[in-house]
From TrEMBL:
Matching InterPro entries: UbiD, UbiD-like_C, UbiD-like_N, UbiD_Rift_dom
Stated name of the protein: UbiD family decarboxylase
Family listed: Belongs to the UbiD family.
Matches recorded under Gene3D superfamilies: UbiD C-terminal domain-like
Entry superkingdom: Archaea
Residue ranges constituting the 3-octaprenyl-4-hydroxybenzoate carboxy-lyase-like C-terminal domain according to the UniProt record: 317-440
Any Gene Ontology CC annotation: cytoplasm
Organism: Acidianus hospitalis (strain W1)
Domain 3-octaprenyl-4-hydroxybenzoate carboxy-lyase-like Rift-related: 124-311
A GO molecular-function descriptor: carboxy-lyase activity
Pfam families recorded: UbiD, UbiD_C, UbiD_N
């Protein structure tokens, strides 16, 4: 699916009767967020607010990613795993950065229309400040109003690879905001490189209101080194049109708004509290300050926001889509991996369930270590490994596997002083915390000390003989089956 911009997506949804337009006056202070959460919990389609108190110039959209089917519709696929599989088969050896494409002409020609391209901006510079944006206060004790689904664009100073991510941004005043990029996020890692080069003011752009495919890409853990604009082009089937700002940052030319500026790494200020996706307020901590140089905006602008809190909200459905899309990538590193489930109520960085084809003793613990060394999966606090015949998406099957294969002293692995989610309030000194791995696979003789017991199975001849009798029973007493 290719949308020209956010407006094109809204028109697409309007034609299908899948936009809930709200013309009643609503306030950015708690009211929009409350309505948005109720809509997501109820699996309603996107909400388009047209009458925002004190922000008459704006429309505001929330709840774009309201279900897993909504993500499939945006990406134009029925099977999300096919995206990862097609990427791996069609684009091996792709150039990782926008500069590398020049050095790799054959690959550049191969990629064709999905490469980023230059575009004429639809926005224009305006004299306005951050407080003119209808950013939301989502929970009563939040420190203020936050950008919650704006894209933060940075550039790696060594490779020129652009990173596009979603970080919450707390507005301080018209010219300043706080950039909440956590340790080991790509924006923070780029900042560390600038700091090593003794550059403390790094170019940044805050972008809002883009094609939802680009927004989804920004929220996804694209493999390190791959330019997210390039990956968005692969998902869209067409390259993203970009415009180069004066600070050297490339931004989507069809964005509803762009804030050009820099992050001052030496200007750290207290950020938060903020009611986050764990369902708790994250406490105050120090983060660097973003400072505005210029603001660009389209006529009759549309602002994109989300409300986070206890699952399942929009981030849950983005997470489930990411799980499916990136499964083929993880299988490259862990070939014995069959399937995985990052349950939405496990908060994606909390609990992960993985099935493997087990062929040798100790393999489950080896896989745990591989998972904890793999990108965003490294933040998982609980890992459960089961056999290939266990459906990881059926929690009852997983519970049965744990109950019938696990001896806690032998099969539970606890790792202290490891890196977890920075928002994990259960740790004394986040992001430093502990991890637990559970080997819920059937054990080899070397692991158990004796042969694993034989599982019960029905007699095949008896099954064939009673089948007609059983069919009569279910036909009479279970007709709906």
């Amino acid at each position: 699916m290719t949308f020209e911009d956010l407006r094109d997506y809204i028109n697409f949804m309007l034609k299908r009767g899948k936009i809930v337009q709200i013309d009643d006056e609503v306030d950015v202070n708690l009211e929009i967020a409350e309505l948005s959460r109720r809509a997501t919990y109820s699996h309603l389609p996107p909400l388009l607010f047209t009458n925002i108190k004190n922000y008459r110039e704006w429309k505001l959209i929330t709840n774009i990613f309201y279900s897993i089917d909504a993500v499939k519709e945006i990406l134009g696929v029925d099977n999300l795993e096919d995206i990862g599989k097609n990427f791996l088969t069609e684009f091996q050896g792709i150039p990782l950065s926008l500069i590398d494409k020049i050095k790799s002409l054959p690959n550049f020609l191969k990629l064709g229309k999905i490469m980023p391209k230059s575009g004429k901006p639809k926005f224009k510079e305006r004299e306005m400040g951050l407080e003119s944006f209808p950013a939301l206060k989502t929970w009563p004790k939040d420190a203020g109003r936050f950008f919650t689904f704006s894209l933060v664009v940075t550039k790696d100073p060594e490779t020129d690879v652009h990173n596009v991510s979603v970080y919450r941004i707390q507005i301080l005043n018209d010219k300043e905001a706080l950039m909440h990029w956590q340790a080991f996020k790509r924006g923070s890692l780029a900042a560390a490189k600038y700091k090593e080069m003794r550059i403390n003011k790094i170019p940044v752009a805050i972008v809002n209101g883009v094609d939802p495919v680009i927004a989804f890409t920004a929220a996804s853990p694209v493999p390190p080194g791959i330019d997210k604009y390039l990956f968005a082009g692969i998902l869209r089937g067409e390259g993203v049109e970009l415009y180069k700002l004066d600070n050297g940052i490339l931004v989507p030319s069809s964005a509803e708004s762009v804030i050009e500026g820099y992050v001052d790494l030496e200007d750290l200020r207290p950020e938060g509290p903020f009611g986050d996706h764990l369902g708790y307020y994250t406490p105050v901590d120090y983060y660097p300050t973003f400072k505005v140089d210029r603001i660009y905006i389209r006529d009759n602008p549309i602002f994109h926001a989300t409300s986070v809190g206890k699952p399942p909200l929009e981030d849950a459905w983005i997470g489930k889509a990411v799980e499916r899309i990136f499964l083929p990538f993880i299988r490259l590193v862990i070939p014995e991996l069959v399937d995985m489930n990052l349950p939405e109520y496990g908060l994606f960085t909390g609990i992960g369930i993985f099935s493997i084809r087990k062929t040798f003793p100790g393999q489950a613990k080896r896989v745990m270590m591989s998972i904890w060394g793999n990108g965003q999966l490294s933040f998982l606090k609980f890992i459960i490994i089961v056999d290939a015949d266990v459906n990881v998406h059926d929690i009852n099957q997983v519970m049965y596997a744990i109950a019938t294969t696990v001896d806690p002293a032998r099969d539970v692995l606890i790792i202290p002083n490891a890196m977890n989610d920075s928002l994990d309030h259960t740790s004394l000194h986040p992001p430093l915390g502990s991890k637990i791995g559970i080997d819920a696979t059937r054990k080899f003789k070397e692991e158990l000390g004796r042969e694993w017991p034989e599982e019960v199975k029905s007699d095949e001849n008896v099954v064939k003989k009673i089948e007609p009798i059983w069919n009569k029973i279910i036909g009479k007493y279970l007709p709906s089956k």
